[in-house]
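User: Can you recover a sequence for this backbone? Please restate the input before giving your answer.

Assistant: Of course. Working from this structure:
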């Protein structure tokens, strides 16, 4: 599915990602955890081609995407749920959702896509005409998730879905991620809440200071005392 090899991304001469390599299997959910400033959002934006790579290679289903435009990446079935949601706050819930079905492969499924999203999030059906900026943070995250799913992605990049949300809402968001994965969507989850991310993932990487410092199955990383101490807040 997704393979990243020796990816280097810089801001000026400063390296945000330094020779990062990871892979995601078809139908798999994997997470990238790490502290603020580790380069996690940079990684998402580089995969989506919103940021250029200084060197390295990003492949999807064996195709080199390193030189593609963001639109071409989206056309190949990659969708993002961005950090901070980034809704059009003066537009309605439904208008925001409809923006997700821009791909030619998704346009003919608009009605079904909306029906699926409203079945997943009944509160959005009730508030479909409401201005998105007036929703709660959790409801706005539902819209962001729904908008990405409207694109009918085969690979979903989810960046910090728990950011700014109450604990009970965070639990609901991660349960939604489980449900999306159960549909067969491959997911790369970027998350600072390491415990929540590892609980829903099959494999994991730890990104720190722009480099992968640990990787393995989620269970393996949860069982490593140094990972617990540094990133999960547990004592060794």
């Amino acid at each position: 599915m997704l393979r990243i090899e020796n990816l280097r991304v810089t801001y000026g001469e400063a390296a945000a990602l330094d020779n990062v390599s990871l892979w995601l299997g078809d139908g798999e959910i994997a997470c990238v955890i790490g502290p603020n400033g580790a380069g996690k959002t940079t990684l998402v934006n580089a995969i989506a081609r919103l940021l250029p790579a200084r060197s390295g290679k990003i492949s999807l289903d064996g195709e080199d995407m390193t030189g593609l435009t963001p639109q071409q990446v989206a056309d190949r079935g990659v969708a993002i749920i961005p950090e901070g949601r980034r809704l059009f706050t003066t537009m309605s819930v439904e208008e925001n959702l409809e923006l997700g079905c821009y791909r030619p492969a998704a346009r003919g499924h608009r009605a079904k896509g909306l029906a699926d999203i409203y079945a997943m999030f009944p509160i959005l059906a009730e508030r479909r005409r409401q201005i998105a900026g007036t929703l709660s943070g959790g409801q706005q995250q539902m819209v962001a998730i729904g908008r990405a799913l409207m694109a009918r992605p085969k690979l979903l990049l989810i960046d910090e879905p728990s950011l700014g949300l109450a604990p009970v809402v965070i639990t609901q968001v991660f349960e939604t991620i489980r449900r999306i994965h159960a549909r067969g969507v491959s997911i790369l989850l970027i998350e600072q809440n390491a415990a929540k991310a590892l609980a829903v993932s099959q494999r994991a990487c730890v990104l720190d200071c722009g480099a992968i410092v640990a990787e393995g199955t989620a269970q393996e990383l949860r069982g490593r005392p140094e990972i617990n101490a540094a990133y999960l807040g547990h004592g060794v």
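That completes the design. The longest helix spans residues 167-182.
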